[in-house]
TrEMBL record:
The keyword Hydrolase applies. Keywords: Glycosidase, Hydrolase. NCBIfam families: PRK09589.1 (NF007154), PRK09593.1 (NF007158), PRK15014.1 (NF011589). Belongs to the glycosyl hydrolase 1 family. Gene3D superfamilies: Glycosidases. Pfam families: Glyco_hydro_1 (PF00232). InterPro entries: GH (IPR017853), GH_1_N_CS (IPR033132), Glyco_hydro_1 (IPR001360), Glyco_hydro_1_AS (IPR018120). It comes from the Bacteria. The active site is at E374. Coiled coil: none annotated. This is 6-phospho-beta-glucosidase.
Length: 476
C-alpha cells in the first residue's frame, strides 16, 4: 500500500505570469512581473521603472498559454492530472489594483480556463497572489508598505471567490509569502510585496510591516471566503527550505533554530492567528515600531487557514560565527554549503530526505493537512534531433522526492493532500527570467532570447509521470 489517500491530488503547478503571456490582452494591466528583465544564474533580473523600450521582458509573451491553454490542458489530462495549480493574474481582474469594479474580460478568461480544466476532470487549485501584483500599486502606493493594499486585495479576493466558488474549491492567498525574509536582496521584496527600497533605507522593519499587512489581508480574505461559501478550502503558501545546522555544535543548532524562526514565523501567524513570542521580543530588541492594531489582531485570529501549501526544492544549512553573538539570521550571509548533498546547475541543493523532514516539521508544528504545491528540478534540457528530450535526471529527482513523501505519509503518518510538481510545462523562471531553466514534462520550443516556435512536445518524464499518477505513486 502506498499510503496516499484516495482522491490524492496529483497534478502540476504554474503561475499566471510565468506562462500566460498576453500581457496586454483583455484589458490586463501591468504587473510587477511585466517590469522585470531576463537575468541568469548569478545575474539578477533588472526591475525597471515601467516597461522600457529595448529591454527583454520574458513574461510579456511567456509561453503564450493565454492563447494555447486548451491544447496544454489536454496534455495535462493525458498525464492523468487530478488537479492543476495556477494563479489568477490580479491585473486581469483589477488592471491597476485600486479600481472599484472588476474587468469582465479578465473574469471571463478564467471562467473559460476553469471550465476547460473541469471538462477534463481536472480540479483548479488557485493562488491569489503569485509574484504578479499590479505595478500601479507599487508606483502609486509604495506596494505593501501601505495599509491601503489590504482593502484592494480583499476586494480582489471577494470578487474571485464569489465568481468561481462553484468551479474552484482549493485556494491559497500569497505565494511563498516568506521569501521576503531575504530582504537584503531586491528580488523577493519586489515580487512578494512590490517593495522598492530607497538607498540606505532600513529594510527590515519595512519587510515586517509589509508582511503584516499581507497576513491581515490573507486572514480577512479567508474569513470572507468562508462567508461566501463554507465549502471553500483556503490555505497559505510557504517556501520551505529547511535550515540545518552545519555541525552538531550547540551554537550551530541554535543558529539553525533562530534561522527557522526567522523564515517560518509567517506560518505561525497564518495557522495560529498570532505572532510567536520570539518575534515580538525581537521587534522589541531591535526597536521596530510596527503598525499592528488591536483590530488587526482580531482579524488574524478569525482568518486561520485550512491547510498549508508549500514548495520544496532544496534545503539550506547555516552555522554560528563569532561576529554574530546573538545568532541572528541574515539570509544573504548566513547560509553555508552542505557537503552531504549535490547541487543543481543553479546551485540549489538537492535533498529528497529534506522533503520528508519538512513534511514532519510542518505536521509536528501545526497538525493541518499539507499540500506540496511545488517541487521540481530546474535543468538545461537538450532536444535530440528527433525532438525527444531524455530528462532522466528529472525523473530521478522527482522519484526520489516522491519516495520520501511516501515515507512521510505511510511511516510517519503525515496528512498529505496532494502533490503538484512545479512547471509541469516549461515556463519562464521566476528567479532568473530564463527559459533555459526548465522544469516541465512538456517541452516548449522557446529560448532565452525569445526565439522558437512555441511548439509543445512530450519529454521522457511525461510518460513516467503519467504512470506515477495511474499507479497512485506505486510505480516510480
Ligand atoms: P525558479 C526561490 C526559492 C524557492 C522557490 O523557481 C522560489 C524562489 C524564487 O525564485 O520560487 C518558486 O523559477 C516560485 C515559482 C518559481 C519556482 O519556485 O527561480 O513559487 O514561481 O518559478 C522555481 O527556478
Amino acid at each position: 500500500m502506498s499510503g496516499f489517500k484516495e482522491g490524492f491530488l496529483w497534478g502540476g503547478a504554474v503561475a499566471a505570469h510565468q506562462l500566460e503571456g498576453g500581457w496586454q490582452e483583455g484589458g490586463k494591466g501591468v504587473s510587477v512581473a511585466d517590469v522585470m528583465t531576463a537575468g541568469a544564474h548569478g545575474v539578477p533580473r533588472e526591475i525597471t521603472d515601467g516597461v522600457l523600450p529595448g529591454k527583454n521582458y520574458p513574461n510579456h509573451e511567456a509561453i503564450d498559454f493565454y492563447h494555447r491553454y486548451r491544447d496544454d490542458i489536454k496534455l495535462f489530462a493525458e498525464m492523468g492530472f487530478k488537479c492543476f495549480r495556477t494563479s489568477i493574474a490580479w491585473t486581469r481582474i483589477f488592471p491597476k489594483g485600486d479600481e472599484l469594479e472588476p474587468n469582465e474580460a479578465g473574469l471571463q478568461f478564467y471562467d473559460d480556463l476553469f471550465d476547460e480544466c473541469l471538462k477534463h476532470g481536472i480540479e483548479p487549485v488557485i493562488t491569489l497572489s503569485h509574484f504578479e501584483m499590479p505595478f500601479h500599486l507599487v508606483t502609486e502606493y509604495g506596494g505593501w508598505r501601505n495599509r491601503k493594499l489590504i482593502d484592494f486585495f480583499v476586494r480582489f479576493a471577494k470578487v474571485v471567490f464569489t465568481r468561481y466558488q462553484h468551479k474552484v474549491k482549493y485556494w491559497m492567498t500569497f505565494n511563498e509569502i516568506n521569501n521576503q525574509a531575504n530582504f537584503h536582496e531586491d528580488f523577493a521584496p519586489f515580487t512578494n510585496s512590490g517593495l522598492k527600497y530607497a538607498p540606505g533605507e532600513d529594510r527590515e522593519p519595512v519587510m515586517f510591516q509589509a508582511a503584516h499587512y499581507e497576513l491581515v489581508a490573507s486572514a480577512l480574505a479567508v474569513k470572507a471566503g468562508r462567508e461566501i461559501n463554507p465549502s471553500l478550502k483556503i490555505g497559505c503558501m510557504i517556501a520551505m527550505c529547511p535550515i540545518y545546522p552545519l555541525t552538531c555544535a550547540p551554537d550551530d543548532m541554535m543558529m539553525a533554530m533562530n534561522a527557522m524562526h526567522r523564515r517560518y514565523w509567517f506560518t505561525d501567524v497564518h495557522v495560529r492567528g498570532k505572532y510567536p513570542q520570539h518575534l515580538l521580543n525581537y521587534f522589541e530588541r531591535r526597536g521596530f515600531a510596527l503598525d499592528i492594531t488591536e483590530e488587526d489582531k482580531v482579524a488574524l485570529t478569525q482568518g486561520c487557514v485550512d491547510y498549508i501549501g508549500f514548495s520544496y526544492y532544496m534545503s539550506f544549512a547555516t552555522k554560528a560565527t563569532e561576529d554574530n553573538p546573538q545568532l541572528d539570521y541574515d539570509e544573504s550571509k548566513s547560509l553555508v554549503s552542505n557537503p552531504y548533498v549535490q547541487k543543481s546547475d543553479w546551485g540549489w541543493q538537492i535533498d529528497p530526505v529534506g522533503l520528508r523532514y519538512s513534511l514532519n516539521w510542518f505536521w509536528d508544528h501545526y497538525q493541518l493537512p499539507l499540500f506540496i504545491v511545488e517541487n521540481g528540478f530546474g535543468a538545461i534540457d537538450v532536444q535530440e534531433s528527433d525532438g525527444t528530450v531524455n530528462d532522466q535526471y528529472r525523473i530521478d529527482y522527482l522519484s526520489a522526492h516522491i519516495r520520501e513523501m511516501k515515507k512521510a505519509v505511510a511511516e510517519d503518518g503525515v496528512d498529505l493532500m496532494g502533490y503538484t510538481p512545479w512547471g509541469c510545462i516549461d515556463l519562464v523562471s521566476a528567479g532568473t527570467g530564463e527559459m533555459k531553466k526548465r522544469y516541465g514534462f512538456i517541452f516548449v520550443d522557446k529560448d532565452n532570447e525569445g526565439n522558437g516556435t512555441l511548439n509543445r512536445s512530450k519529454k521522457k518524464s511525461f510518460d513516467w509521470y503519467k504512470q506515477v499518477i495511474a499507479s497512485n505513486g506505486e510505480q516510480l
